[in-house]
Amino acid sequence: MNFSKFNMIPPHLEEAMQLMKSGQLKEATNVIQKNLSGTAPASHTDKNPIKDVTPDMSTLEDSSSSKDKNTGTDDVSSKLQDFTDKMKHFKLDLPSVMDISTLRTGVNTHSEPFIPDNAQFLKGNLKSSQGSHDYRLYIPSNYAQAVEDGLRLPLIVMLHGCTQSPEDFAVGTRMNELAEKHHCLIVYPSQPASANPNRCWNWFKPTDQQQGKGEPAWLAALTTSIIEDYAVDSSRVYIAGLSAGAAMAVIMAENYPKMYAGVGVHSGLAYRSATDLPSAMMTMRQGGSAPLKPASNNKFVPMIVFHGDQDHTVSIRNGEQVFEQAKQRLQAQETGLTTHQHKQCSEQNCRSTQLEIRDSKGVSQLEYWKIHGAGHSWAGGNSAGSYTDPKGPDASKEMLRFFFNQ
């Protein structure tokens, strides 16, 4: 279904709301479950406060099932209000499908992160042929000394997910803290609501999948501007993102392979896996339908991929396709590759499985981290930010380890 011409509630949510109004709470729950992921999400028993874009349907179902035990008007009204309150925490990471401002979790996505002495978190605006866009730039506290010593620092471009802001993304990923430790600059481009009502990067539009056009052109211009205006080592520029931001990071690596030395993809989608809204919605749910081969013979950009195997917003099939697409390009350009598999386990369970491909020198060129039991959230993130899972592995640390080992 194409909702691109207008902002409205998709039919399945409209149906659910009508059922709620008539007191049919269990039926409303079933409608949402069916249309969100095809089956009810696995229930989470962990007590950590994970902020995910997939609602805990098990709690909603428990609440609605009690309707059968008590059918009084007051009781139905109470359960309906309870269900409505829970719905306020329900939001979809769908591109431009609906205005979800009324369904937000209450997280202040513009709260300023802590900035240590002598560090800066600057506000900037870049005007280009693609329009005017805001961004935030983190400059570590040792930057002045590095300039004085004639050093040039790495730069990481961080692309937020839908409904997020640069500030929220900085808090959730803790990238500013890591920038202090590793002495690098971090730039957070901001997608305005004027470009997408939910602040999603438009990864599914053909005009935003090409070099020299749309959002890729602006992001490339911003990257170039930071390189020219600050003491940046142009050979150590990296790009990473979450969800829609991760999909756009893949697009940037595909179209500007000489600009970026590495790409980090968290809960993202393969290059050109969708070309419009209907195909984007389908791809998010079940992955691309056609074999996804590299679109060109451009230079391979080293890539690290993270995806939760309980992601009911962007199916893990997409993470697999990102990996497979990158592997095809790597295998076409490199010989002597070796594949290694690792597991990160505790006494209770294995949290992640990693598939790694190294070049003939033993340097990791492509990594795929399948995070067991995780939803659509940044692994190892700060719970003060949105879409974060405080449990490991720490995606931010692993990304920087991967980038700086190239």
Question: What does it look like?
Answer:
This protein has 406 residues and is α/β, with parallel strands linked by helices. It has 12 helices and 12 strands. The chain folds into 2 domains: 11-103, no CATH class; 120-334 and 361-404, 3-Layer(aba) Sandwich (Rossmann fold). Helix 1 runs antiparallel to helix 2 (25-37) and helix 2 packs antiparallel against helix 3. The model is unreliable at 1-9 and 35-107 (pLDDT under 50).
Approximate shape:
globular
Structural class: alpha/beta
Specify the CATH class of the largest domain: Alpha Beta
Q: What do we call the CATH homologous superfamily of the largest domain?
A: Alpha/Beta hydrolase fold, catalytic domain
Biggest sheet: strands, sense, closure? 10 strands, mixed
Radius of gyration over C-alpha positions, nearest whole angstrom: 22 Å
Return the string of H and E elements: HHHHEEHEHHEHEHEHEHEEEEEH
Query: Helix fraction?
Result: 25-40%
User: What distance lies between the first and last C-alpha atoms, to the nearest angstrom?
Assistant: 43 Å
Keywords: Hydrolase, Signal
Organism: Psychrobacter saeujeotis
Pfam families: Esterase_PHB
InterPro entries: AB_hydrolase_fold, Esterase_phb, Plant_Biomass_Hydrol_Est
